Structure formats: structure tokens, C-alpha cells
């Protein structure tokens, strides 16, 4: 079930395979608002920015985290999601902390930090959703 954030975007996550036939967890952020949103990503360490974790217990199990980088070769501080568009990230399961097996329930935990174009205030939405 997607997680809806204050009339701006939804987050959906599910198991699939990527273009290289690897088992991955896909995270999609769809902008359902009337304007573009700018997601703030953590680049190095536990600094300000979006921090996401996978867990099998609905609790943060370790300090391994990742941010929302649609192109892993370009780790940008900000990711723009245009209104009406969807950005996605594929996380290969062998890169997930603790090597969580695909046959267990997996949860996406953490928070997404974002800005709206007409509002310079940082907004934060906590995430706790089951991977479908």
C-alpha cells in the first residue's frame, strides 16, 4: 500500500528484477502535487537528508542506510521529481544491509526530506511501509 504524503507525493516499494535480471527492491516516488518537489539526499554519513533503511522487524536494525539516488553513479544532493512524474530507485538485495532474504517480510523505514518550490522550509516525512 503506498504511503501518501501531504498531498505531494506517494511512496511505493516492491520486489522485482532489474534490467540485469537481479532481484531488487524498487522504490518509487510519484509526485501527485501541483508543483515540482526537491528531495534532499544524504551524501556522506548521517548528515541532513533522506535516510532509508531496510528491516525485517519494523525497527532500525543497524546503521546501514541509503538515500534516494535514481542514478547510483550520480549521487546528487537533490533529486527533483517533476509534478505528475515518478522517479525510481532499484536496490539490489545483495547490497541491502544484513543480506535480507527475498522470502522474508521486508520493511522500508526512515524519512524523506523535501522542499516545495514556493516554500524554503525543509519538510520531513517519516516512512514505515512494507515492501510488497
Can you put this structure into words, describing what you see?
The protein is mainly β and 132 residues long. It has one domain: Sandwich (Immunoglobulin-like), CATH 2.60.40. It has strands spanning 3-4, 9-17, 23-31, 37-40, 51-55, 78-81, 86-92, 107-116, 119-130. The strands form 2 sheets. Strands 4, 5, 6, 8 and 9 form a 5-stranded antiparallel sheet that branches. It has a 4-stranded antiparallel sheet with strand order 1-2-3-7, with no helix packed on it. The termini are close together. The model has no long low-confidence stretch (mean pLDDT 80).
Features:
0% helix; 5-stranded antiparallel sheet; mainly beta; Immunoglobulin-like; 132 residues
What is this entry, summarized?
This protein has 132 residues and is mainly beta. It contains no helices and nine strands.
List the SSEs and their pairings:
Blueprint: E1 3-4, E2 9-17, E3 23-31, E4 37-40, E5 51-55, E6 78-81, E7 86-92, E8 107-116, E9 119-130
Antiparallel strand pairs: 1-2, 2-3, 3-7, 4-6, 4-8, 5-8, 8-9
User: Could you give a short account of the major beta sheet?
Assistant: 5 strands, antiparallel
Count of discrete alpha- or pi-helical segments spanning 4 or more residues: 0
Helix- and strand-based class?
mainly beta
The CATH C-level class name: Mainly Beta
Share in helix? under 10%
CATH architecture: Sandwich
- Would you count the extended β strands for me? 9
Low-confidence stretches: none
Return Rg in Å: 14 Å
Residue-averaged pLDDT, rounded?
Answer: 80
The general outline is globular
Roughly how many Å apart are the termini?
Answer: 8 Å
CATH topology: Immunoglobulin-like
- Strand coverage percent: over 45%
Number of domains: 1
Element-level helix/strand string: EEEEEEEEE
Amino acid at each position: 500500500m503506498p504511503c501518501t504524503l501531504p498531498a505531494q507525493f506517494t511512496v511505493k516499494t516492491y520486489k522485482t528484477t532489474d534490467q540485469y535480471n537481479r532481484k531488487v527492491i524498487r522504490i518509487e516516488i510519484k509526485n501527485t502535487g501541483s508543483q515540482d518537489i526537491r528531495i534532499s539526499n544524504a551524501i556522506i554519513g548521517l548528515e541532513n537528508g533522506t535516510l532509508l533503511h531496510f528491516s525485517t522487524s519494523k525497527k532500525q536494525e543497524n546503521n546501514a542506510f541509503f538515500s534516494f539516488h535514481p542514478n547510483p553513479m550520480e549521487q546528487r544532493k537533490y533529486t527533483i521529481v517533476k509534478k505528475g512524474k515518478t522517479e525510481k530507485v532499484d536496490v539490489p538485495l545483495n547490497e541491502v544491509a544484513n543480506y535480507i532474504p527475498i522470502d522474508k517480510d521486508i520493511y522500508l523505514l526512515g524519512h524523506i526530506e523535501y522542499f516545495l518550490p514556493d516554500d524554503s522550509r525543509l519538510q520531513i516525512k517519516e516512512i514505515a511501509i512494507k515492501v510488497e
